């Protein structure tokens, strides 16, 4: 039985992974704040943007962290279809949670609890589906206690994020909430990863799938670029600026006779 190396790329992968999770959370929270102040189609569109931001941030965090995952004695490949499916699941489950609290969150307790549990379980499902996409010469096994703990962390992190989406308003609060959310998501990831053991089965047959640098890294860069460009758009959009008060109509002012 072999215990994998989780920091094979040094400090770069965990730090950048954390930054992506925090950036996605920050953008998602700002979009959710906009959604709660809007109505109709505008609210739906802001919630969709928030879902993509937080979901893609979590997914990007996971797979950037996976760049440091190595197993001595085996190469590693990724099943492309399962990896993409894990991205869709991340966005979908985050979206379900945000829409639950965004559309039905007047009485916050039950929508928040339901959204947090559903989103947390979905984020954990995304993580382990991403792990199922791994292809190596051996069999992966998990410590069930650590797996259960990672799911609990995911639920707590998701609930905290949804609570922040309903509560946080100022930029400073958003930054602090996103930093905490990034730390929670990273903790969930590495808790799940430390549950992994590999029983090697040496084989000279080539592995199917793509390497991390062929597929994961370019997609992570694309999603990271999306997060930062969308953040700039949200920051510069008119709703982000302080509006000047509109002058009251001067109904009582008499115009001089001509």
The N- and C-terminal alpha carbons lie at a distance of: 98 Å
Count the E strands: 4
Task: Tell the overall outline.
Answer: elongated
Task: Supply the number of helical segments.
Answer: 7
| Strand numbers in spatial order across the main sheet | 1-2
The ordered string of helix (H) and strand (E) elements is HHEHHEEHHEH
Mean pLDDT: 82
Please give the radius of gyration in angstroms.
22 Å
Beta fraction: 5-15%
Structural class: mainly alpha
Architecture overview:
The radius of gyration is 22 Å and the shape is elongated. By secondary structure, it is mostly helical. Helix 1 (12-36) packs antiparallel against helix 2 (40-65), helix 1 runs parallel beside helix 7 (212-236) and helix 2 (40-65) packs across helix 6. The chain has one domain (12-238). Strands 1-2 form a two-stranded antiparallel sheet. Strands 3-4 form a two-stranded antiparallel sheet. 67% of the residues lie in helices and 6% in strands. Residues 240-253 have low confidence and may be disordered. It contains seven helices and four strands.
Write the layout of secondary structure elements.
Layout: H1 12-36, H2 40-65, E1 76-78, H3 80-104, H4 109-132, E2 134-136, E3 138-142, H5 144-167, H6 171-193, E4 196-200, H7 212-236
Antiparallel strand pairs: 1-2, 3-4
Helix pairs in contact: 1-2, 1-5, 1-6, 1-7, 2-3, 2-4, 2-6, 2-7, 3-4, 3-5, 4-5, 5-6
Give a short summary of the structure:
Helices cover about 65% and strands about 5% of the residues. It has helices at about 10-35, 40-65, 80-105, 110-130, 145-165, 170-195, 210-235; strands at about 75-80, 135, 140, 195-200. It is elongated, with a radius of gyration of 22 Å.
